[in-house]
């Protein structure tokens, strides 16, 4: 019996991965307003009734997708921060990942997403920004403790940095220019919070 249950769990996870892959493409190409459960089911090669068993409506699908993406992103972020030797390098890694994520993943920003979802669904999605923000606060706090970053309220600084890193204008450039643009923005973020001049 455990083997059957394991197989069912594996199958369920495979279905979710196919559905999320299909949704990711549709969000990137057309935006959430055009997403339908039947369209996602067709693109994922999943029966509509099977999809409805997992997700009763498209808001539930989007919330589950964001939760899945956020968990994966936080794991990748933690690995990048662990590999960086000091606060400046950790802040650079954080900024670089945020901008790369912004460049590759198109969800409606803030107010647009809030208008597309009911308040409870939006609160669940917004809550996934907390662990990411907590990592940024920790980096800024560490930098201040070591004297290499300004010793201001790290939560205020984190909000300023996060706001700067959420601007689509930074990443809406020709793909050939993206690397240089991202590094320019990363350098600007470092200068904004550093107490010493950076090369």
Characteristics of this structure?
mainly alpha, 199 residues, 76% helix
N to C succession of SSEs: HHHHHHHHHHH
Number of helices: 11
Distance between the termini: 62 Å
Main sheet specs = none
Work out the radius of gyration. 19 Å
Average pLDDT figure: 85
Query: What coarse outline follows from CA principal-axis ratios?
Result: elongated
Strand percentage:
under 5%
What percentage of residues falls in helices of 4 or more residues? over 70%
Low-confidence stretches: 1-5
The secondary structure category is mainly alpha
Give the helix/strand layout.
Layout: H1 2-30, H2 37-44, H3 48-54, H4 58-83, H5 87-104, H6 110-116, H7 119-126, H8 129-145, H9 154-165, H10 168-171, H11 178-193
Helix pairs in contact: 1-2, 4-5, 4-7, 4-8, 5-8, 5-11, 8-9
């Amino acid at each position: 019996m455990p083997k059957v249950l394991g197989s069912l769990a594996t199958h369920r996870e495979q279905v979710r991965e196919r559905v999320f892959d299909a949704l990711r493409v549709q969000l990137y190409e057309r935006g959430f307003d055009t997403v339908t459960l039947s369209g996602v089911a067709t693109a994922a090669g999943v029966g509509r009734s099977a999809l409805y068993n997992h997700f009763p409506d498209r808001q539930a699908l989007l919330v589950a997708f964001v939760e899945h993406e956020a968990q994966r992103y936080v794991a990748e972020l933690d690995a990048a921060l662990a590999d960086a030797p000091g606060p400046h390098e950790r802040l650079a890694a954080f900024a670089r990942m945020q901008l790369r994520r912004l460049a590759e993943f198109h969800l409606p920003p803030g107010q647009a997403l809030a208008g597309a979802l009911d308040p409870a669904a939006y609160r669940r999605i917004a809550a996934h920004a907390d662990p990411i923000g907590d990592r940024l606060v920790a980096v800024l706090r560490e930098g201040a403790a070591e004297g290499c970053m300004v010793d201001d309220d790290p939560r205020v600084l984190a909000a300023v940095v996060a706001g700067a890193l959420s601007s689509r204008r930074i990443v809406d450039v020709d793909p050939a220019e993206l690397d240089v643009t991202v590094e320019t923005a990363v350098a600007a973020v470092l200068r904004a919070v550093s107490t010493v001049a950076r090369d």
